[in-house]
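Protein folding task:
====================
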Amino acid sequence: MRDGLKKTCKNALSLQSVSNPKEGTMKVKFNKIIMSMLMVVLAMGLTTIQNAQTKKSKEKSEQTGEQDIPASYLDVFHAKEKAFSLRVSNRKDIYRLKIIVANFGDSETKPKFDKILKDYKEGVKVLYKNKFVQASKLLEENRKNIRELYAIFSRQYHNKAAELLNECADLLVETELSESIEPGSANRSKDKLIRKIRNRLSVAYAQLNLGSEFENLKNYPEAVAHFRVAKYHGIQILKELAETEEDKRKIEKKYAVDLADAENMVAKKSSKSS
């Protein structure tokens, strides 16, 4: 197209060789106008072709989802390593979250988990298609959403663990006072139990503090793990301080979901409804 326009321009300029000077001047002006028009047409044609190619390239990129893939082999290599690493780490956290959501999920957290699971499957599917850069981005976004959901549960676990241990501390103080105020062999026999509970409560608060530290570091999976242990110790203390076997059974029933969760298990439906 460009060569044809140049040839036309050249032929137009050849018309300048005329005998009459006045007529020649008019023809020169006419040729300049023609030349300008041809240049405009040429520019418009090239712009149209370029825009069409750009649009076609963009549509192809959108279809493949690889619009930002770098040409560098090194970048693709690193993206591949990262994607495979995220595939493993995200899967582990999703498995843990599945149990947590089953035990304590609500109308806010369950849809978030469903989206996380769906996005993870999509990211891994793209990875297996060897689209490493795109897979790396999808799984990194998936990782971010996992952290955000873990943060929600971390706050819930933290609050419940702190509440439980505070109740345990109150009961321990009451038990110690009861023993010292009311003399007798029956009360003195509780000395061993009180020492045991005091040690367990100390361990529980240590776990609570570790969970808080990991929470501040935004390592929410580790924080949840420590809060779980703190809750477990708290429940055991309540059982040990229970006056009767019936009281112990009530505590076990009340915290059945927490006890199952502490063992990384989904509580039975009857436990949740009670």
The chain has two domains: 2-61, 74-274. Residues 15-19, 61-66 have pLDDT under 50 and may be disordered. Residues 2-61 form one domain.
